[in-house]
TrEMBL record:
Membrane topology note: Multi-pass membrane protein
InterPro entries: Yif1_fam (IPR005578)
Source organism of this protein record: Artemisia annua (Sweet wormwood)
Family of the protein in this entry: Belongs to the YIF1 family.
Key words of the record: Endoplasmic reticulum, Golgi apparatus, Membrane, Protein transport, Transmembrane, Transmembrane helix, Transport
Biological process according to GO: endoplasmic reticulum to Golgi vesicle-mediated transport; protein transport
The name this protein goes by in its record: Integral membrane HRF1 family protein
Primary residence: endoplasmic reticulum
Transmembrane segments: 99-119
Subcellular location: Endoplasmic reticulum membrane; Golgi apparatus membrane
Annotated Gene Ontology cellular component terms: COPII-coated ER to Golgi transport vesicle; endoplasmic reticulum membrane; endoplasmic reticulum-Golgi intermediate compartment; Golgi membrane
UniProt keyword Transmembrane helix, yes or no: yes
The keyword Cytoplasm belongs to this UniProt entry's keyword annotation: no
Length: 122
């Protein structure tokens, strides 16, 4: 192709590349700073995500599998702790994120896949 069809060719190509590069660096830089500053907030207490009981698991599976039957609210419940708002753990709030159900689903998949491969002789 000729340089006529290339938008990044010519006198302004350095300006365009430099501007796009700076803009991309600004976006990626700010997002990585955001992730770094908030990662400790979300993963500082992993026990929070495993505070579940049988009743919670049963209700959460109903909400995940049949969301059109959910009659409650879809927002999380907050409580004041130390002068700021904090979210209640999963055992008290059906809308709270948990890691118990995904971890058990993965464990079940591994066991069933191993059982299936064992039956096939692989």
């Amino acid at each position: 192709m000729t340089s006529f069809w290339n938008p990044f060719y010519g006198a302004s190509s350095g300006l365009i590349r430099g501007g796009l590069g700076a803009y991309g660096e600004k976006i990626l830089g700010s997002s990585s700073e955001y992730v770094q500053s908030n990662i400790s907030r979300y993963f500082s207490d992993p026990q929070y995500y495993f505070q579940v009981n049988d009743h919670y698991v049963r209700n959460k599976l109903k909400v995940v599998l049949f969301p059109f039957l959910h009659r409650g609210h879809w927002t999380r419940i907050t409580e004041p702790v130390g002068g700021r708002l904090s979210y209640k753990p999963p055992i008290y709030d059906i809308n709270a994120p948990d890691l118990y159900i995904p971890l058990m689903a993965f464990g079940t998949y591994v066991v069933l896949a191993g059982f299936s491969l064992g039956l096939q002789g692989k």
